[in-house]
Amino acid sequence: MKDYSIRHIAIIPDGNRRWAKAHGKLPWRGHQAGVRTYEQVLKKALELNVYCVSFWGMSTDNRLKRGHREVAFLFALFEKTLQRALASRELEKNDVRVNVLGEWRAQFPKKLVRLGERVIKETEKRKKHIMNLLLCYDGRSEMLHAFRRALASKGKSAGDPKRYLYTRNLPPVDLVIRTGGDPHLSAGFMMWDVADAQLHFSNKLWPDFTPEDFERAVKDYLRRERRFGA
């Protein structure tokens, strides 16, 4: 097994709806194609021995501003994805813990919330790898919540927002990959954890992004010199 010695990669998988439009399909078919890409890229990340991978599956705005039919289709896709995570021999073999991060408990149907809780519970003792799904996630809301709790806290945790982030038990992000051709971050994406991250922007729409593209992004990251302000 290759080991690229990279701890945490966060992915913004942009371009599903544009991919569907370009192929004459309904918007949610792009999300369906995007799930296949997610599974292939996760497999490659495990092959490369990446410790932690975070996928942004849905923003809070996606949940609130998209049409009812599209959101319902996304919920169905998330249900299938979580069920596959529960049944996955590959995730079990690779000792992958699955986290679901964001405001999904407040925004998702109860049945889907129960499934998410089950996935978290049944994989929580796994140690070798972590896979995070960010659902109904907004980085600005996360930071606001963390700052409020830090200011109200006492004792050892006083003044330390990291203790109150969804990512409090995760390492900082080394590399952010965004597909879709728009070179920017969105909605304060993991803003505390990406403070020193390198960025990789791909012009490919997410359903067209391949495991080989992912590996090239990792190799590109490893060629860069990280100075950390020095």
From TrEMBL:
Signal peptide: none
Keyword Transferase applies: yes
GO BP of this protein: polyprenol biosynthetic process
A molecular function GO annotation: ditrans,polycis-polyprenyl diphosphate synthase [(2E,6E)-farnesyl diphosphate specific] activity
Keyword Transferase: yes
Cofactor: Mg(2+)
Active site: 14, 62 (proton acceptor)
Entry note: cofactor: Binds 2 magnesium ions per subunit.
Keywords linked to the UniProt accession: Magnesium, Metal-binding, Transferase
Uppermost EC category: transferase
Pfam families the UniProt entry points to: Prenyltransf
Domain of life (superkingdom): Bacteria
Residues annotated as binding substrate: 15-19, 31, 59-61, 66, 178
InterPro entries from the UniProt entry: UPP_synth-like, UPP_synth-like_sf
Classification via SUPFAM superfamilies: Undecaprenyl diphosphate synthase
Enzyme Commission number, as recorded: 2.5.1.-
Family affiliation: Belongs to the UPP synthase family. Z-FPP synthase subfamily.
Purpose of the protein: Catalyzes the condensation of isopentenyl diphosphate (IPP) with allylic pyrophosphates generating different type of terpenoids.
HAMAP family: ISPT
Oligomeric and partner information: Homodimer.
This protein's name: Isoprenyl transferase
UniProt organism field: Candidatus Ryanbacteria bacterium RIFCSPLOWO2_02_FULL_47_14
